[in-house]
Amino acid sequence: MSNTPNWKKLSVDIKLDGRAFINGKRVTSASGVNFDCISPIDGKKIAEIARGDLADINSAVTAARAAFEDGRWANKTPRERKFIMVRFSELLKENAEALALMETLDMGKPVNYSLNVDVNSAANSLRWFGEAIDKVYDEIAPTPHSSLALITREPVGVVGAIVPWNYPMLMACWKLAPALAAGNSIVLKPSEKSPLTALKLAELAMEAGIPAGVLNIVPGFGQEAGAALALHMDVDCIAFTGSTPVGKMIMQYAGQSNLKRAWTELGGKSPFVVFADADVDAAAESCIGSIFFNQGESCNAPSRLIIDKSVQKQFLDKALSLVPNYQPADPLAASTVMGALVDETQLNTVMRYITAGKAEGANCVTGGNRVMEQSGGYYVAPTIFTDVRNDMKIAREEIFGPVLSVLSFTNEADAIRMANDTPYGLAASIWSQDISRAHKAARALRAGTVHVNCYDEDDITVPFGGFKQSGNGRDKSLHAFDKYTELKTTWIKLS
Predict the structure, then answer these.
(1) Residues 265, 287, 297, 398: which is the catalytic one?
(2) For the stretch 199-226, what's the b/e string if a residue is b when 16 or more beta carbons lie within 10 angstroms of its beta carbon?
(3) Residue 48 catalytic?
(4) Which tens digit of pLDDT belongs to each residue from 213-222?
(5) Total-model pTM
(6) CA–CA separation, 435 vs 418, rounded Å?
(7) CA–CA separation, 89 vs 308, rounded Å?
(8) 299 is catalytic
(9) What is the distance of C-alpha 166 from the center of its chain?
(10) Which of 37, 103, 299, 398 is catalytic?
Protein backbone atom coordinates (compact mmCIF):
# COMPACT_ATOMS: atom_id res chain seq x y z
CA MET A 1 0.00 0.00 0.00
CA SER A 2 1.42 3.39 -1.00
CA ASN A 3 2.33 5.88 1.73
CA THR A 4 2.10 8.77 -0.73
CA PRO A 5 -0.51 11.26 0.51
CA ASN A 6 -3.60 11.82 -1.61
CA TRP A 7 -2.73 15.45 -2.20
CA LYS A 8 -5.83 16.14 -4.28
CA LYS A 9 -8.14 14.98 -1.49
CA LEU A 10 -6.12 16.80 1.14
CA SER A 11 -6.34 20.00 -0.91
CA VAL A 12 -10.14 19.80 -0.81
CA ASP A 13 -10.30 19.05 2.92
CA ILE A 14 -7.70 21.51 4.23
CA LYS A 15 -8.92 24.45 6.29
CA LEU A 16 -7.03 27.67 5.55
CA ASP A 17 -7.09 30.50 8.09
CA GLY A 18 -6.00 33.85 6.66
CA ARG A 19 -6.30 35.94 9.81
CA ALA A 20 -3.27 37.73 11.21
CA PHE A 21 -1.47 36.49 14.33
CA ILE A 22 -0.82 39.19 16.92
CA ASN A 23 0.00 38.85 20.61
CA GLY A 24 -0.62 35.12 20.68
CA LYS A 25 -3.93 34.87 18.85
CA ARG A 26 -5.55 34.98 15.44
CA VAL A 27 -7.17 38.33 14.68
CA THR A 28 -8.95 39.99 11.79
CA SER A 29 -7.36 43.08 10.28
CA ALA A 30 -8.10 46.32 12.13
CA SER A 31 -9.93 47.60 9.04
CA GLY A 32 -11.86 44.37 8.58
CA VAL A 33 -10.61 44.24 4.99
CA ASN A 34 -9.38 41.00 3.40
CA PHE A 35 -7.81 40.13 0.06
CA ASP A 36 -8.16 36.97 -2.00
CA CYS A 37 -5.54 34.24 -1.95
CA ILE A 38 -5.43 32.77 -5.47
CA SER A 39 -3.77 29.44 -6.13
CA PRO A 40 -1.47 29.53 -9.19
CA ILE A 41 -2.28 25.87 -9.81
CA ASP A 42 -5.66 26.70 -11.34
CA GLY A 43 -6.21 30.42 -10.79
CA LYS A 44 -8.94 29.79 -8.21
CA LYS A 45 -9.50 31.48 -4.86
CA ILE A 46 -8.52 29.29 -1.91
CA ALA A 47 -8.74 31.67 1.06
CA GLU A 48 -9.29 35.23 2.25
CA ILE A 49 -6.31 36.90 3.91
CA ALA A 50 -6.36 39.74 6.42
CA ARG A 51 -5.15 42.92 4.72
CA GLY A 52 -2.88 44.31 7.38
CA ASP A 53 -1.93 48.00 7.37
CA LEU A 54 -0.42 50.58 9.71
CA ALA A 55 -2.91 49.89 12.50
CA ASP A 56 -2.12 46.18 12.50
CA ILE A 57 1.63 46.80 12.35
CA ASN A 58 1.29 49.16 15.31
CA SER A 59 -0.54 46.48 17.30
CA ALA A 60 2.03 43.84 16.41
CA VAL A 61 5.01 46.07 17.23
CA THR A 62 3.41 47.08 20.54
CA ALA A 63 2.98 43.41 21.43
CA ALA A 64 6.54 42.59 20.38
CA ARG A 65 7.97 45.51 22.33
CA ALA A 66 6.08 44.56 25.49
CA ALA A 67 7.26 40.97 25.18
CA PHE A 68 10.85 42.07 24.74
CA GLU A 69 10.90 44.61 27.56
CA ASP A 70 9.43 42.27 30.18
CA GLY A 71 11.88 39.55 29.18
CA ARG A 72 9.37 36.74 28.80
CA TRP A 73 11.55 35.32 26.01
CA ALA A 74 14.82 37.28 26.06
CA ASN A 75 15.43 36.49 29.73
CA LYS A 76 14.91 32.77 29.43
CA THR A 77 18.09 30.80 29.87
CA PRO A 78 19.82 29.58 26.71
CA ARG A 79 18.85 26.05 27.68
CA GLU A 80 15.18 27.00 27.97
CA ARG A 81 15.13 28.76 24.60
CA LYS A 82 16.96 25.84 23.01
CA PHE A 83 14.42 23.34 24.29
CA ILE A 84 11.51 25.38 22.92
CA MET A 85 13.10 25.97 19.51
CA VAL A 86 13.92 22.29 19.10
CA ARG A 87 10.29 21.52 19.91
CA PHE A 88 9.25 24.16 17.34
CA SER A 89 11.35 22.32 14.76
CA GLU A 90 9.77 18.99 15.69
CA LEU A 91 6.28 20.46 15.27
CA LEU A 92 7.13 21.43 11.69
CA LYS A 93 7.98 17.81 10.99
CA GLU A 94 4.80 16.61 12.69
CA ASN A 95 2.74 18.99 10.54
CA ALA A 96 4.81 18.45 7.40
CA GLU A 97 2.00 17.36 5.08
CA ALA A 98 -0.24 20.31 5.96
CA LEU A 99 2.61 22.80 5.62
CA ALA A 100 3.75 21.31 2.31
CA LEU A 101 0.23 21.41 0.92
CA MET A 102 -0.24 25.04 1.97
CA GLU A 103 3.06 25.98 0.33
CA THR A 104 2.13 24.31 -2.95
CA LEU A 105 -1.43 25.62 -3.06
CA ASP A 106 -0.16 29.11 -2.29
CA MET A 107 2.80 29.46 -4.67
CA GLY A 108 2.67 26.58 -7.12
CA LYS A 109 5.84 24.57 -6.49
CA PRO A 110 5.72 20.75 -6.77
CA VAL A 111 4.35 19.33 -3.55
CA ASN A 112 7.11 16.76 -3.27
CA TYR A 113 9.64 19.61 -3.15
CA SER A 114 7.53 21.47 -0.60
CA LEU A 115 7.49 18.36 1.57
CA ASN A 116 11.03 17.06 1.17
CA VAL A 117 12.96 20.31 0.64
CA ASP A 118 11.12 23.26 2.13
CA VAL A 119 9.63 21.74 5.27
CA ASN A 120 12.78 19.80 6.11
CA SER A 121 15.05 22.79 5.52
CA ALA A 122 12.84 25.12 7.55
CA ALA A 123 12.72 22.65 10.45
CA ASN A 124 16.48 22.13 10.25
CA SER A 125 17.06 25.88 10.46
CA LEU A 126 15.01 26.16 13.65
CA ARG A 127 16.73 23.16 15.22
CA TRP A 128 20.26 24.25 14.22
CA PHE A 129 19.95 27.75 15.64
CA GLY A 130 18.17 26.38 18.68
CA GLU A 131 21.04 23.99 19.30
CA ALA A 132 23.55 26.82 18.74
CA ILE A 133 22.14 29.04 21.50
CA ASP A 134 24.21 27.56 24.32
CA LYS A 135 27.32 27.00 22.23
CA VAL A 136 28.11 30.61 21.29
CA TYR A 137 30.40 32.21 23.85
CA ASP A 138 31.05 35.84 24.69
CA GLU A 139 34.58 37.27 24.88
CA ILE A 140 37.07 38.81 27.29
CA ALA A 141 39.32 41.42 25.71
CA PRO A 142 43.13 41.35 26.22
CA THR A 143 43.19 44.54 28.25
CA PRO A 144 45.81 45.58 30.86
CA HIS A 145 45.64 43.62 34.11
CA SER A 146 44.17 46.65 35.87
CA SER A 147 40.92 46.24 33.88
CA LEU A 148 38.48 43.58 32.76
CA ALA A 149 36.63 44.18 29.48
CA LEU A 150 33.69 41.92 28.64
CA ILE A 151 32.34 41.74 25.10
CA THR A 152 28.81 40.37 25.10
CA ARG A 153 26.09 39.83 22.52
CA GLU A 154 22.64 41.10 23.35
CA PRO A 155 19.42 40.85 21.34
CA VAL A 156 18.77 43.90 19.18
CA GLY A 157 15.15 44.13 20.41
CA VAL A 158 12.17 44.15 18.05
CA VAL A 159 12.97 42.66 14.65
CA GLY A 160 10.85 43.38 11.60
CA ALA A 161 11.13 40.70 8.91
CA ILE A 162 9.77 40.81 5.37
CA VAL A 163 10.06 37.62 3.35
CA PRO A 164 9.40 36.74 -0.32
CA TRP A 165 6.98 34.43 -2.04
CA ASN A 166 9.32 31.92 -3.68
CA TYR A 167 10.36 30.01 -0.53
CA PRO A 168 7.86 31.43 1.98
CA MET A 169 8.37 28.98 4.83
CA LEU A 170 12.12 28.53 4.42
CA MET A 171 12.89 32.24 4.08
CA ALA A 172 10.76 32.92 7.15
CA CYS A 173 12.72 30.37 9.18
CA TRP A 174 16.06 31.72 7.94
CA LYS A 175 15.01 34.97 9.64
CA LEU A 176 13.05 33.63 12.61
CA ALA A 177 15.55 31.03 13.77
CA PRO A 178 18.58 33.24 14.52
CA ALA A 179 16.42 36.18 15.62
CA LEU A 180 14.51 34.05 18.12
CA ALA A 181 17.63 32.20 19.23
CA ALA A 182 19.23 35.55 20.10
CA GLY A 183 16.24 36.50 22.27
CA ASN A 184 14.46 39.02 20.06
CA SER A 185 10.77 39.59 19.50
CA ILE A 186 9.58 39.61 15.89
CA VAL A 187 6.97 41.05 13.57
CA LEU A 188 6.96 39.14 10.29
CA LYS A 189 5.25 40.28 7.11
CA PRO A 190 4.99 37.47 4.57
CA SER A 191 4.49 38.18 0.90
CA GLU A 192 0.88 38.84 -0.05
CA LYS A 193 1.39 36.22 -2.77
CA SER A 194 2.11 33.38 -0.31
CA PRO A 195 1.19 34.10 3.33
CA LEU A 196 -0.33 30.80 4.44
CA THR A 197 2.61 28.90 5.91
CA ALA A 198 3.92 31.92 7.85
CA LEU A 199 0.58 32.19 9.63
CA LYS A 200 0.69 28.49 10.48
CA LEU A 201 4.27 28.83 11.78
CA ALA A 202 3.06 31.31 14.42
CA GLU A 203 0.55 28.80 15.73
CA LEU A 204 3.21 26.10 15.93
CA ALA A 205 5.58 28.50 17.71
CA MET A 206 2.97 29.10 20.40
CA GLU A 207 2.36 25.37 20.71
CA ALA A 208 6.10 24.84 21.15
CA GLY A 209 6.15 27.28 24.07
CA ILE A 210 7.24 30.61 22.56
CA PRO A 211 5.34 33.20 24.63
CA ALA A 212 2.56 35.36 23.25
CA GLY A 213 3.78 38.58 21.66
CA VAL A 214 7.22 37.23 20.78
CA LEU A 215 6.25 36.19 17.23
CA ASN A 216 3.62 38.18 15.35
CA ILE A 217 2.55 37.72 11.71
CA VAL A 218 0.89 40.52 9.76
CA PRO A 219 -0.06 39.68 6.17
CA GLY A 220 -0.67 42.49 3.75
CA PHE A 221 0.72 44.41 0.82
CA GLY A 222 4.21 45.85 0.65
CA GLN A 223 3.18 49.47 0.23
CA GLU A 224 0.90 49.20 3.27
CA ALA A 225 2.06 46.68 5.88
CA GLY A 226 5.62 46.34 4.60
CA ALA A 227 6.34 50.06 4.43
CA ALA A 228 4.73 50.61 7.83
CA LEU A 229 6.99 47.98 9.37
CA ALA A 230 10.17 49.32 7.78
CA LEU A 231 9.31 52.90 8.79
CA HIS A 232 8.22 52.06 12.34
CA MET A 233 10.08 54.04 14.99
CA ASP A 234 9.92 51.21 17.53
CA VAL A 235 11.43 48.51 15.28
CA ASP A 236 15.14 48.08 15.95
CA CYS A 237 16.07 45.98 12.92
CA ILE A 238 14.50 45.23 9.54
CA ALA A 239 15.49 42.05 7.68
CA PHE A 240 14.30 41.77 4.09
CA THR A 241 14.56 39.19 1.33
CA GLY A 242 13.21 40.15 -2.08
CA SER A 243 13.93 42.22 -5.15
CA THR A 244 16.72 44.78 -5.40
CA PRO A 245 14.40 47.75 -6.14
CA VAL A 246 12.34 47.03 -3.01
CA GLY A 247 15.52 46.42 -1.02
CA LYS A 248 16.65 49.94 -1.88
CA MET A 249 13.33 51.28 -0.58
CA ILE A 250 13.72 49.30 2.66
CA MET A 251 17.11 50.89 3.29
CA GLN A 252 15.66 54.34 2.58
CA TYR A 253 12.84 53.67 5.05
CA ALA A 254 15.39 52.70 7.69
CA GLY A 255 17.19 56.00 7.18
CA GLN A 256 13.99 58.03 7.13
CA SER A 257 12.84 56.57 10.45
CA ASN A 258 15.12 55.64 13.34
CA LEU A 259 18.25 54.42 11.53
CA LYS A 260 17.22 50.85 12.34
CA ARG A 261 19.65 48.17 11.22
CA ALA A 262 18.65 47.17 7.68
CA TRP A 263 19.66 43.80 6.23
CA THR A 264 18.78 42.89 2.67
CA GLU A 265 19.13 39.65 0.70
CA LEU A 266 18.27 40.68 -2.85
CA GLY A 267 18.24 39.62 -6.48
CA GLY A 268 20.74 37.80 -8.61
CA LYS A 269 21.80 37.07 -12.16
CA SER A 270 24.21 34.30 -11.36
CA PRO A 271 26.86 33.21 -13.89
CA PHE A 272 27.47 29.53 -14.58
CA VAL A 273 30.93 29.45 -16.18
CA VAL A 274 31.95 26.33 -18.10
CA PHE A 275 35.52 25.97 -19.37
CA ALA A 276 36.55 23.65 -22.20
CA ASP A 277 38.16 21.13 -19.85
CA ALA A 278 35.00 20.70 -17.74
CA ASP A 279 32.90 17.57 -17.43
CA VAL A 280 30.42 19.10 -19.86
CA ASP A 281 27.62 16.56 -19.43
CA ALA A 282 27.74 16.89 -15.64
CA ALA A 283 27.74 20.67 -15.97
CA ALA A 284 24.69 20.55 -18.23
CA GLU A 285 22.79 18.34 -15.80
CA SER A 286 23.63 20.68 -12.92
CA CYS A 287 22.75 23.85 -14.82
CA ILE A 288 19.44 22.58 -16.17
CA GLY A 289 18.40 21.11 -12.84
CA SER A 290 19.20 24.36 -11.04
CA ILE A 291 17.72 26.91 -13.46
CA PHE A 292 14.42 25.04 -13.73
CA PHE A 293 14.17 24.13 -10.04
CA ASN A 294 11.32 25.97 -8.33
CA GLN A 295 10.21 27.15 -11.80
CA GLY A 296 13.29 29.36 -11.98
CA GLU A 297 11.90 31.43 -9.11
CA SER A 298 15.14 31.44 -7.13
CA CYS A 299 17.27 34.51 -6.48
CA ASN A 300 20.42 32.45 -6.98
CA ALA A 301 19.25 30.63 -10.13
CA PRO A 302 22.12 30.18 -12.64
CA SER A 303 20.34 32.20 -15.31
CA ARG A 304 23.49 33.13 -17.30
CA LEU A 305 25.41 30.22 -18.81
CA ILE A 306 28.84 31.52 -19.86
CA ILE A 307 30.51 28.75 -21.84
CA ASP A 308 33.64 28.15 -23.89
CA LYS A 309 32.55 28.28 -27.52
CA SER A 310 34.38 25.03 -28.28
CA VAL A 311 32.08 22.97 -26.03
CA GLN A 312 28.85 24.93 -26.42
CA LYS A 313 27.29 22.46 -28.88
CA GLN A 314 28.07 19.49 -26.66
CA PHE A 315 26.56 21.28 -23.67
CA LEU A 316 23.41 22.30 -25.54
CA ASP A 317 22.87 18.82 -26.99
CA LYS A 318 22.93 17.42 -23.46
CA ALA A 319 20.84 20.26 -22.04
CA LEU A 320 18.13 19.95 -24.69
CA SER A 321 17.94 16.20 -24.09
CA LEU A 322 17.10 16.97 -20.44
CA VAL A 323 14.46 19.65 -21.05
CA PRO A 324 11.59 17.16 -21.54
CA ASN A 325 12.11 16.04 -17.94
CA TYR A 326 11.23 19.56 -16.74
CA GLN A 327 7.93 20.20 -18.48
CA PRO A 328 5.38 21.84 -16.16
CA ALA A 329 2.71 19.59 -14.69
CA ASP A 330 0.17 19.50 -11.87
CA PRO A 331 2.03 20.60 -8.69
CA LEU A 332 -0.12 18.20 -6.64
CA ALA A 333 1.09 15.16 -8.61
CA ALA A 334 3.89 13.29 -6.86
CA SER A 335 5.94 12.96 -10.08
CA THR A 336 5.94 16.68 -10.98
CA VAL A 337 9.32 18.44 -11.04
CA MET A 338 8.24 21.88 -12.31
CA GLY A 339 5.03 23.58 -11.28
CA ALA A 340 3.29 26.92 -11.75
CA LEU A 341 4.63 30.47 -11.51
CA VAL A 342 3.32 32.21 -8.42
CA ASP A 343 0.65 34.37 -10.04
CA GLU A 344 -0.56 35.98 -13.25
CA THR A 345 1.62 39.05 -12.69
CA GLN A 346 4.76 36.93 -12.59
CA LEU A 347 3.59 34.95 -15.61
CA ASN A 348 3.21 38.17 -17.59
CA THR A 349 6.62 39.40 -16.39
CA VAL A 350 8.37 36.25 -17.58
CA MET A 351 6.57 36.34 -20.93
CA ARG A 352 7.59 39.99 -21.43
CA TYR A 353 11.24 39.04 -20.94
CA ILE A 354 10.90 36.18 -23.41
CA THR A 355 9.40 38.56 -25.94
CA ALA A 356 12.21 41.06 -25.31
CA GLY A 357 14.86 38.37 -25.80
CA LYS A 358 13.44 37.46 -29.19
CA ALA A 359 13.13 41.12 -30.19
CA GLU A 360 16.78 41.82 -29.28
CA GLY A 361 18.00 39.01 -31.51
CA ALA A 362 18.53 36.10 -29.12
CA ASN A 363 17.67 32.65 -30.47
CA CYS A 364 14.99 30.77 -28.52
CA VAL A 365 16.01 27.13 -29.02
CA THR A 366 13.34 25.63 -26.77
CA GLY A 367 10.27 26.79 -24.88
CA GLY A 368 9.35 30.45 -24.89
CA ASN A 369 5.63 29.87 -24.48
CA ARG A 370 2.88 29.55 -21.91
CA VAL A 371 1.59 26.01 -21.40
CA MET A 372 -1.31 24.29 -19.60
CA GLU A 373 -3.42 27.39 -20.13
CA GLN A 374 -6.58 25.29 -19.99
CA SER A 375 -5.87 24.57 -16.32
CA GLY A 376 -6.42 28.21 -15.44
CA GLY A 377 -2.97 28.23 -13.81
CA TYR A 378 0.25 30.05 -14.66
CA TYR A 379 2.73 27.76 -16.38
CA VAL A 380 5.67 28.52 -18.70
CA ALA A 381 7.71 25.99 -20.65
CA PRO A 382 11.43 25.68 -19.78
CA THR A 383 13.15 28.17 -22.07
CA ILE A 384 16.71 28.46 -23.41
CA PHE A 385 18.11 31.35 -25.43
CA THR A 386 21.38 31.20 -27.37
CA ASP A 387 23.24 34.03 -29.15
CA VAL A 388 22.78 36.21 -26.09
CA ARG A 389 24.90 39.30 -25.51
CA ASN A 390 25.58 40.60 -22.04
CA ASP A 391 23.91 43.92 -22.87
CA MET A 392 20.53 42.29 -23.57
CA LYS A 393 17.71 42.62 -21.03
CA ILE A 394 17.49 38.85 -20.59
CA ALA A 395 21.18 38.80 -19.63
CA ARG A 396 21.15 41.82 -17.31
CA GLU A 397 17.80 41.82 -15.51
CA GLU A 398 16.46 39.24 -13.08
CA ILE A 399 13.64 37.34 -14.77
CA PHE A 400 12.64 35.00 -11.92
CA GLY A 401 11.34 32.32 -14.24
CA PRO A 402 12.50 29.22 -16.14
CA VAL A 403 14.68 31.09 -18.65
CA LEU A 404 18.36 30.37 -19.37
CA SER A 405 20.55 32.75 -21.38
CA VAL A 406 23.59 31.26 -23.12
CA LEU A 407 26.66 33.45 -23.71
CA SER A 408 29.94 32.18 -25.14
CA PHE A 409 33.62 33.10 -24.68
CA THR A 410 36.97 32.19 -26.21
CA ASN A 411 39.42 33.00 -23.38
CA GLU A 412 39.46 32.92 -19.60
CA ALA A 413 39.77 36.67 -19.14
CA ASP A 414 36.61 37.26 -21.17
CA ALA A 415 34.76 34.64 -19.14
CA ILE A 416 35.57 36.35 -15.85
CA ARG A 417 34.83 39.80 -17.28
CA MET A 418 31.42 38.66 -18.54
CA ALA A 419 30.60 36.87 -15.30
CA ASN A 420 31.34 40.00 -13.25
CA ASP A 421 29.66 42.39 -15.70
CA THR A 422 26.43 42.58 -13.70
CA PRO A 423 25.04 44.73 -10.89
CA TYR A 424 24.38 41.55 -8.92
CA GLY A 425 26.71 39.29 -6.95
CA LEU A 426 24.72 36.58 -5.20
CA ALA A 427 26.09 33.28 -6.53
CA ALA A 428 28.26 31.84 -9.29
CA SER A 429 29.66 28.55 -10.53
CA ILE A 430 32.96 27.51 -12.12
CA TRP A 431 33.34 24.26 -14.05
CA SER A 432 36.87 23.07 -14.79
CA GLN A 433 38.97 19.99 -14.06
CA ASP A 434 42.03 22.23 -13.58
CA ILE A 435 41.95 22.98 -9.85
CA SER A 436 44.33 25.92 -10.18
CA ARG A 437 42.17 27.55 -12.83
CA ALA A 438 39.01 26.85 -10.84
CA HIS A 439 40.47 28.31 -7.66
CA LYS A 440 41.80 31.45 -9.35
CA ALA A 441 38.52 31.98 -11.19
CA ALA A 442 36.52 31.50 -7.99
CA ARG A 443 38.61 34.16 -6.25
CA ALA A 444 38.09 36.54 -9.19
CA LEU A 445 34.30 36.26 -9.17
CA ARG A 446 32.42 38.88 -7.16
CA ALA A 447 29.73 36.76 -5.55
CA GLY A 448 28.70 35.71 -2.07
CA THR A 449 28.77 32.00 -2.94
CA VAL A 450 30.96 30.44 -5.64
CA HIS A 451 30.37 26.79 -6.46
CA VAL A 452 33.11 24.75 -8.13
CA ASN A 453 32.03 21.79 -10.28
CA CYS A 454 28.58 21.87 -8.68
CA TYR A 455 25.70 24.27 -8.14
CA ASP A 456 23.34 25.11 -5.30
CA GLU A 457 25.06 22.79 -2.85
CA ASP A 458 23.80 23.96 0.50
CA ASP A 459 24.09 23.56 4.25
CA ILE A 460 22.86 25.58 7.21
CA THR A 461 26.47 25.88 8.42
CA VAL A 462 27.55 28.21 5.59
CA PRO A 463 26.48 31.86 5.14
CA PHE A 464 24.20 32.96 2.30
CA GLY A 465 24.07 36.47 0.89
CA GLY A 466 25.47 38.68 -1.82
CA PHE A 467 27.95 41.26 -3.03
CA LYS A 468 27.00 44.48 -4.85
CA GLN A 469 23.26 44.98 -5.42
CA SER A 470 22.50 41.47 -4.18
CA GLY A 471 22.38 42.90 -0.68
CA ASN A 472 24.23 42.90 2.63
CA GLY A 473 24.46 40.72 5.70
CA ARG A 474 24.19 36.94 5.69
CA ASP A 475 21.49 34.40 6.39
CA LYS A 476 22.39 30.95 7.79
CA SER A 477 25.47 29.93 9.80
CA LEU A 478 26.63 31.60 13.00
CA HIS A 479 27.19 34.78 10.97
CA ALA A 480 23.41 35.30 10.97
CA PHE A 481 23.65 36.24 14.65
CA ASP A 482 25.50 39.39 13.56
CA LYS A 483 22.23 40.74 12.17
CA TYR A 484 20.11 40.20 15.25
CA THR A 485 22.49 41.09 18.10
CA GLU A 486 24.31 44.14 19.42
CA LEU A 487 27.87 43.94 20.73
CA LYS A 488 28.30 45.50 24.16
CA THR A 489 31.59 46.28 25.87
CA THR A 490 31.54 46.33 29.66
CA TRP A 491 34.78 47.84 31.04
CA ILE A 492 35.52 47.07 34.67
CA LYS A 493 38.35 48.88 36.47
CA LEU A 494 39.98 46.55 38.94
CA SER A 495 41.35 47.89 42.22
Answers:
(1) 265
(2) bbbbbbbbebebbbbbbbbbbbebebbb
(3) no
(4) 999 999 999 9
(5) 0.96
(6) 21
(7) 45
(8) yes
(9) 7
(10) 299
